[in-house]
Amino acid sequence: MAVLASSAQRKSDRRPPRGRSAAVRRAVLAVLVLGALALLTISFRSPTSGALHDAQGYGASALRPFQVAATRVARPFRDAYDYLSSLTSAKSENAKLHREVGYYQALALKNLAAAKENANLKRLLDYEQGPTYPRDYRAVNASVISFPSGPFDQQITIAAGSNLGLRVNTPIVSADGLVGRVTNVGRVTATVALLTDPDSVVAARDLSTKVSGLIRHGQGNTLILDQVAKDQVVNRGDVIVTQGTRDRRYPDLYPYGIPVGQVISVGTSDIASYRTVQVAPFAKLTGLDAVAALIPTKASTLP
User: Fold this and answer.
1) 147 has a pLDDT exceeding 90
2) Any idea where the domains of the chain sit in the sequence?
3) pLDDT tens readout for residues 5-14
4) For 137-296, which CATH superfamily applies?
5) Whose CB among 62, 134, 259, 286 lies 3.0–4.6 Å from 177's, allowing a Cys bridge?
6) pLDDT tens for residues 181-191?
């Protein structure tokens, strides 16, 4: 124990004081700084062919292989960094371009829909100012906001209601012809039964031969002019319009002269009591965007 204690004491005595070690480090740092400043001063003031510049040249020549080696070693890492950086930048740019393309596509579709709606409204305006527009009626233009939900549903919803004067049985038209009538009305919306609805019945007549009948739902999206006697003449290509009110005692829901459709076939059966007159509707009932409700300005009218 005494030997170990004396040995430890001798080793601890050999350590320099902490203050002395710090002073040595400061002195070395000062010498290095002064030497660096001296070398910089000599380098700037000495001619280009001085001894210091020669020493720099020798040092650079000696270190050149290490610089080349370091450049070659670092080149793959630098290339990999540049590749990853460019790839990240390209992905970011691609995502930005995708967002811009999506935005402009949505904007183009919105503009296309607005242009189509404007075209339909212009056609409605032309119809309202045309000669076939019924007298003593004002038009309330409305957008179609709901379409048939299935093959057996023949109703649409429009963005107009009692606040604009619509009532049950108000006639609904498009720029091409008769669409149907209002069956349910709210304050700002209304439900419209199309001509192809099984419960729809419209008094109509042949514009050329004056033959009257009832427009009903036919096969598919076609109509039939029902109750046309076999001795009456209806020709293929004839235009069918609404009959309108012929007697004040029996007012009709629709004013006279609204285009309904065109006769596409006329047939006769030995077992049937009436002719089979098939009519194609003028109004495109499956692709409506805007319609007009006909609001009477008088209590009743005669054509």
Assistant:
1) no
2) 137-296
3) 555 455 555 5
4) Rod shape-determining protein MreC, domain 1 (2.40.10.340)
5) 259
6) 999 999 999 99
Residue type, position 198, single letter: P
DSSP letters for the chain: -HHHHHHHHHHHHHSPPHHHHHHHHHHHHHHHHHHHHHHHHHHHHS-TTSHHHHHHHHHHHHHHHHHHHHHHHHHHHHHHHHHHHHHHHHHHHHHHHHHHHHHHHHHHHHHHHHHHHHHHHHHHHHHHTSTTSPTTEEEEEEEEEE--SSTT--EEEES--GGGT--TT-EEE-SSSEEEEEEEE-SS-EEEEETTSTT--EEEEETTT--EEEEEE-STT-EEEES-BTTS---TT-EEEE---SSTTS--SS-TT-EEEEEEEEE--TT-SB-EEEEEESS-TTS-SEEEEEEESSS----
- 47-80 pLDDT, tens digit each: 555 665 666 666 667 767 767 777 777 778 777 8
273, two tokens:
């009591």
